[in-house]
């Protein structure tokens, strides 16, 4: 008999539950891919209703959506916008995407990444895959820690992204394009402020 003793987990989010909440919220909007109607729905309504469902499930850990704290993110050649629901040392939960589409290198990360589409599509492949994997609303693209993909959101596309692992190790990738390309210091400062504020708050409350 083997007894597996599990140590305490720093995680408050369950990736399966996050995806289930997202799928339920999409279903309530008639926006799941199985209903073949998802492209006719308004992306703004979907972002708002999914955000509300996540906040209701995790009120202590998921910030309410607002439209003052959206920031751009340039990383791996891709450009998108994001709203940070939660950022701590071991996890972040964001809505990420682009109103016009985007494409780039995923980066090789120190965290597992769960990317659940809520509007539009994500196309992705690993080196050696000849055909794209296509993810539609309700589908989750899992990128394990240390692996890499080329991805695109060919047109308007939004997703809920949960990352679990060592988050500070991901940030240089998330910020490097500011130095090498965009020089958008205002957006950079806003992103650093938002992430440092949340990480410090949770660390001071014993959530790493
Ligand atoms: C949460 C904070 C404050 C910063 C995170 C910055 C970046 C590390 C991320 C912002 C958007 C992220 C995306 C991915 C990796 C990490 C980011 C660049 C993916 C490439 C991971 C794989 C998915 O399939 C697509 C993701 C797009 C967004």
Tell me what you see in this structure.
By secondary structure, this protein is α+β, with helices and mostly antiparallel strands. It contains four helices and ten strands. The strands form two sheets. Strands 1-2-3-10-5-8 form a six-stranded antiparallel β-sheet. Helix 1 (15-28) crosses helix 2. The radius of gyration is 17 Å and the shape is globular. The two termini are 33 Å apart. The model has no long low-confidence stretch (mean pLDDT 93). Bound molecules: ligand LGRKZMXR. Ligand LGRKZMXR is lined by residues 73, 75, 82, 84, 87, 92, 94, 96, 106-107, 113, 115, 124, 141, 143, 151, 161, 170-171, 173-174, 191, 195.
Brief account:
The protein has four helices and ten strands, in the order H-H-E-E-E-E-E-E-E-E-E-E-H-H.
């Amino acid at each position: 008999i083997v007894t597996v003793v599990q140590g305490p987990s720093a995680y408050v989010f369950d990736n399966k539950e996050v995806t289930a909440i997202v799928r339920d919220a999409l279903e309530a909007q008639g926006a799941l891919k199985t209903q073949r109607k998802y492209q006719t729905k308004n992306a703004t309504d979907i972002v708002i209703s999914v955000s509300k469902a996540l906040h209701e499930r995790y009120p202590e850990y998921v910030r309410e959506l607002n439209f003052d704290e959206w920031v751009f993110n340039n990383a791996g050649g891709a450009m998108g916008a994001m709203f940070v629901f939660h950022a701590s040392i071991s996890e972040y939960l964001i809505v990420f995407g682009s109103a016009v589409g985007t494409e780039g290198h995923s980066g090789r990360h120190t965290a597992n990444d769960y990317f659940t589409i809520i509007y539009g599509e994500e196309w992705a492949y690993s080196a050696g895959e000849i055909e794209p994997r296509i993810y539609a609303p309700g589908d989750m693209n899992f990128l394990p820690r240390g692996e890499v993909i080329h991805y695109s959101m060919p047109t308007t596309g939004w997703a809920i992204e949960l990352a679990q692992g060592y988050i500070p190790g991901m940030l240089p990738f998330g910020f490097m394009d500011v130095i090498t390309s965009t020089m958008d210091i205002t957006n950079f400062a806003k992103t650093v402020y938002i992430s440092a504020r949340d990480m410090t708050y949770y660390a001071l409350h014993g959530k790493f």
